[in-house]
Design a protein that fits this description.
Layout lengths: L2 E6 L4 H13 L3 E7 L19 E5 L5 H11 L3 E4 L6 H6 L1 H23 L7 E7 L23 H20 L3 E6 L1 E3 L8 H10 L4 E4 L5 E6 H14 L5 E4 L4 E3 H15 L11 E4 L14 H7 L7 H14 L1 H7 L3 H10 L1
Parallel strand pairs: 1-2, 1-4, 2-3, 4-5, 5-6, 6-10, 7-9, 8-12
Antiparallel strand pairs: 9-11
Helix pairs in contact: 1-7, 2-4, 4-5, 6-8, 6-10, 8-10
The structure holds nicotinamide-adenine-dinucleotide (NAD) and 2'deoxy-thymidine-5'-diphospho-alpha-D-glucose.
């Protein structure tokens, strides 16, 4: 094998798309997917590639520093792509400490393990930290987040991701650990856990349950097809400049309520229901505390320096997403049994 890479959080939503892309594209790389398999991690996301000879799964928690050191010793990783995180804003509001442990302590454990392992031979090594646009805070009606926008995280989730970003940059400046970072906007597509807006709404519409829209529904997000994010990560990992940060976005802003209406129209069509049936399920509910009004990414840097741009129009991507969820009922049934029911009851009553 030419290289051994560690991918953390590879059984989650974005991580599973990235693992699938890399194991197929780079048969000469050995890919070790480390994941704790929390409620959000699911090996069913990788059934189609788990038999490949260059893929290895390790169930482990990044808060376990000793185990990480042992893994680095055993595999002698050439690179790390770090996605493992607690990722849902609403859960960070009810359980902030879990976010501090995984997103901050877990990241520093990984940085320490990489630093220790690479200290005598840093050439060609690379620690890639995958982060979010939420670290930049909330925008008004205009403007975009660039790589130099000052950090202003406002939820326990975004604060924990911001802290991890700062630590990664601190290891670059202080210890010359070879790092690269990216901050991406909202992803959508297959395998997203149905606590997030789009899969939750698809699931509820299919089951004729209320579709909860927080507050006035005028909150805006910049949506990106998840496979485009995976392609950007591949590009940045191989071609990005060390010590640099790249913003990734869909150039695709939608107010939540407009997105939900579009989704309702698609669902009516797919489920052969009379037009307007799904929209009747829209229910305005109590707002998320500290809800960020608008996110929008300026992706000029990655476009001009690395030649990346989103491939898919939103309507097309949303249709593909709906098709996938409707065709994968077993997956949905598995992930929405057990813990999901308690979470849903607590959140939406
Ligand atoms: P996800 O919640 O779907 O997956 C997270 C994965 O991390 C799961 O497989 C989970 O089991 C694993 N994990 C959690 N805690 C762990 C621990 N302590 N040790 C090991 N593994 C652990 O998240 P996602 O949406 O795929 O996001 C992946 C990364 O991308 C995160 O770092 C997130 O901050 C970032 N991100 C997400 C989005 C988005 O829209 N989803 C956008 C920008 C950036
Ligand atoms: O911007 C990138 C971030 O996008 C990632 O870093 C996070 O990991 C990811 O979860 C996502 O965060 P959001 O909070 O933007 O995503 P979520 O799907 O939870 O919510 C999208 C919008 O929809 C947000 O304005 C809140 C709203 N919402 C969400 C849910 C779950 C509703 O109105 N109703 C809902 O039931």
């Amino acid at each position: 094998m030419e290289k051994t890479l560690l991918i953390t959080g590879g059984a989650g939503f974005i991580g599973s798309h990235l693992v699938r892309l890399l194991v197929k594209k780079y048969p000469q790389y050995r890919l070790v997917n480390l994941d704790a398999l929390t409620y959000a991690g699911n090996l069913e996301n990788l059934r189609d590639i788990e038999y490949l000879p260059n893929y290895i799964f390790v169930k482990a928690d990044i808060t376990d520093a000793t185990l990480l050191s042992e893994l680095f010793e055993a595999y002698n990783f050439d690179g790390v792509i770090h996605l493992a995180a607690e990722s849902h804003v609403d859960r960070s509001i009810s359980s902030p400490t879990d976010f501090v442990m995984t997103n901050i302590v877990g990241t520093v454990n990984l940085l320490n393990a990489a630093r220790q392992s690479w200290k005598n031979n840093p050439d060609g090594k690379r620690f890639y930290h995958v982060s979010t646009d939420e670290v930049y805070g909330s925008l008004g009606e205009t403007g975009f987040f660039t790589e130099t926008t000052p950090y202003d995280p406002r939820s326990p989730y975004s604060a924990s991701k911001a802290a991890s970003d700062h630590l990664v940059r601190a290891y670059w400046h202080t210890y010359h650990l070879p790092v690269v970072l990216s901050n991406c906007s909202n992803n959508y597509g297959p395998f997203q856990f149905p606590e997030k807006l789009i899969p939750l709404a698809i699931h509820n519409i299919q089951n004729s349950k209320p579709v909860p829209v927080y507050g006035d529904g005028q909150y805006t997000r910049d949506w990106l097809w998840v496979e485009d994010h995976a392609l950007a990560i591949d590009l940045i990992f191989h071609k990005g400049r060390l010590g640099q940060t790249y913003n990734i976005g869909g150039n695709n802003e939608w107010k939540n309520i407009d997105l939900i209406h579009l989704l309702c129209r698609i669902m009516d069509k797919k489920l052969h229901r009379p037009e307007g049936t799904s929209a009747k399920l829209i229910t305005f509910v109590k707002d998320r505390p500290g809800h960020d009004r608008r996110y929008a990414i300026d992706a000029t840097k990655i476009r001009t320096q690395l030649g990346w741009q989103p491939s898919l129009q939103f309507e097309e991507g949303l249709e593909k997403t709906v098709d996938w969820y409707l065709a994968n009922q077993d997956w949905l049934t598995h992930v929405t049994s057990g813990e999901y029911r308690q979470y849903y009851e607590k959140m939406y009553g």
